[in-house]
Every structure is written in C-alpha cells, then in structure tokens.
Amino acid sequence: MSPSSRATPPMVASHSPFSQSSESLKSTSASSLEDMHVIRPLRPGVYVPTLAFFKDNEDLDLITVGKHAVRLAKAGVAGIATQGSNGEAVHLSHQERKQVTRTTRMALDDAGFHSLPIIVGCGSQSTRETIELCQEAFASGGDYALVLPPSYYKPMHKSDTIIEFFQDVADMSPVPILIYNYPAAVSGIDLCSDTISELAKHPNIIGCKLTCGNTGKLARIAAATNAATPTDPGSGFMCMGGSADFTLQTLIVGGSGVICGIGNVAPKACAKVIDFYATGKMAEVKKLQAIVARGDWAAISSGIVGTKSALETYFGYGGVARRPLPRATKAEVMKYANGFKEIVEFEKSL
User: Fold this and answer.
1) I need a surface site. Which of 128, 170, 228, 316 has the fewest CB within 10 A?
2) Known InterPro entries for this protein (predicted)?
3) Homologous superfamily, domain 3-280
4) pTM of the model
C-alpha cells in the first residue's frame, strides 16, 4: 500500500452493507449517522480507551459517557476508543455497545469535534460475530475497529488460523482494522512482530496496539511498516503502544503514540509527553514520563475500579463498575486517591 493511501484512509470500503460517503465532516442525527459517515484519519498522538459509566442501578449513564468524551477532546487527545477493556465491553450487550459509541460520536459532534476519530473494540471469538461488531461500530459512528485475536479454543489456533482470522475480518469490515495484541486478555496468545508486519500488508489493516509492552517488537513493526510518527507521516500505519508508562520508549523507537487508560484521568499530561518529544524537549519529557508512568501504575494496579474511584474523588464523576467487579471500600478509595494524586495535580496545573 502506498504511503499516501495509508496516511489518508479511504471512504468506507465498497463491500460494506452500509456504504455511503460524505464530502465533509459534520454533525449528524442518530438516525443518519451511517448515511453521512466518512472515515476520519488517525494521527500520531494519545488515544484514550474510555470508561463506560453506569447509574446506581447499573444502567448506562449516557449523559456522563458524552460529557467525558468531550472533556477528553478538549484536553487535546488525538482520538477516543470505545468498547475496550477500560470500557467494560465484556459487560455490555451489542445494543449497549452501539449506544455508547453512538453517544460518544454525537457528543463530540455537538461540541464541535467533528473530525476526532473513534476506534471501537470489536473483538469476539468467532469471525462472524467480529465482522458483525465491526458493522455495528460503523453504523454507530465508529471509524476504526480494534480487534483481539480469538482465544477461547487456544490449542486449535495456530499462526495460520490467526492470520486468516484477521484477513477475513479485514476483508469484510466496513471500517479499517487495528490489531490488538494483549496476551493477558486472550489466554496468553502473543502475536509476534513477523505476524503483525505480514498482516499490515492488508489494505484494510492500518495499525496495531501493543499492550504486551514489548518495545523491541514495537520497534521491529514500526520499522517494517514505516509507521507514522509525531514528526513524520511515514506510510500512515499506526504502531501504537498500549500503555502510557512506555510512551517515550514507543516514540523513541519509531512508534506512533499510545492508547492508554490513564488518559481517562490525565489526558493533558499524557498528550504533553507527545508534545515535549515532538518539539525536542528531552529533559522535560523524561521528567514528565516518570510522572505519567507512576500514575499509570496506579491505574494498572487498581484497574477500572481504582480509575473510576479516582475520577470520582478528583473530578466528581466516575461511579462504579458493573458487577461482578467489586465496589471500592473507604480504605481503598483513600489508597486510590493517594496513588493518582501526583498525576492529577500535574494535570490540573496544565
């Protein structure tokens, strides 16, 4: 695929059952999203896998979903990801997934962020349902699909099976695909750099997210794909780190940025790492990366429960996760507040 076609993703693929195009990005009503939808280009930077918010009875709190998305957009993130691990996708029905993505798109459009792209988690165990989720993501206003490899029948999934899975999904998806390598979520399946680099040749596979934390792998993929960076558009392929605690490392080896959960709490701080690096402020970026890494460890070690607790403590919203995830005790609320304190203080100083 040519660098220019990577850098400017096409309109919706012609094989999509929803195929329509629009010459401009503009706000749309819920009923017309799929008629007016054009794929918004990705750019190097920070992407935030947003949380799903719930009312006390665990129904979706769509008002907070929308307000949170706009807060992140105003902070300067490059894009938003719905239906990821942070978004409790495994706790949502298909209908609820569509509601979250549609609400996010409409809130961004209403706030003037028409061009901010949305990546939607679309992983499932069967090829058929994964394609269905990609179609639903597009119909709901999503621009890209983030896809995990299938893992339930792990002993039967050989390298060829995984490659065929991603190629089949990419062939049929109405939106471009990013490969999601997250061994902890898929029974330890860890895609190697050779496999991801080979899949990157598919015209509808335009990036990857490496939550494995293997920066050597990231460096090999970035080099093989001539990945986009904050200072060089390259081929347009998005080689993304999966955690903010190695943002600087990702950038140094030629990566495109990160998709990071701590961005829900401190989006400005995470984006500032990219800004400092892109402008050559190496002393500043090294100090900030340490703050972000410590904050990210608070998020990683406490999970969704701790992240939502910190949002509640410091920003007045967050709520709880869906059961069977636990509720934070008073002692845990204090612990989480202390863990996030440094990065929140920096965030509020920006």
Assistant:
1) 316
2) Aldolase_TIM, DapA-like
3) Aldolase class I (3.20.20.70)
4) 0.90
